[in-house]
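Q: Hi! First time doing this. I have a protein sequence and I read that you can turn it into a structure. Is that right? Here it is:
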Amino acid sequence: MAAKKKKQVTLHVPSAPFRPGDKASFAPFENEPGDLSRPDPVNCTASETTDHAYGLVRVLDFEGKASGPWNPDLTPDELREGLEHMVRMRIFDDRMMKMQRTGKLSFYMRSYGEEAVAIAQTMALETQDWIFPTYRQPGAQFVRGRDMVSMINHCIGNEEDNVKGRQMPVHYTYREGRFISVSSPVGTQFSQAVGVAMASQYKALDECCITWIGDGSSAEGDYHYALNFASVFKPPVILNIVNNQWANFTQLTLQVVTQHSLQED
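A: Yes, that's right. Below is the predicted 3D structure, encoded as structure tokens:
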């Protein structure tokens, strides 16, 4: 009797559901503002936010108007302030990118399309709170009062640079605004923010920390270390994953098996 042929073991290589140029699909999510209840932002338990982690919390309708239970009811002055900061960031990005492309800057990374992420959240913070950004959140500095010329001086690395050329361009730091220096290794700001928040908690200080990473950085060890420490010690820290579905040109489904990054922990 002939021996049974063994099945060859091969490495599984996943394929992305979409490629660059394909039309984006948000089929798994509700398009209109839903009726997801808004839990108490301070006293709610983790279990009360489970549905939010697996769905889409949307504030703006197709007419661009805030509606539903998540409407923040901002005043006209607050809306104008936020818009001014975002427009200023867009103009700054455009100008600095042109300087980099024409050889006047050695390096630049822009936050195009993500201006609201940092600006809106920073506007909601208190001035004593700490900011641990990536290179996509420079707009938070405008909220904290930094002027555009100071940021240009840093990118150029001239004698007016507040770090005197000791950092790469776009690695801003702004002590007066509690804006911590951008870290080149992605994901490390999560551990930094959790550590400072733990110190603030230990000293009984009335302050919190906020930080951001992209979805690709959730594959880094610092992301998991930070979540573990934060879940155990419960320091006053806000951890954000800005998920644009791509990390350095790698689609999210090629990085993790789970549907949502927060499902991992």
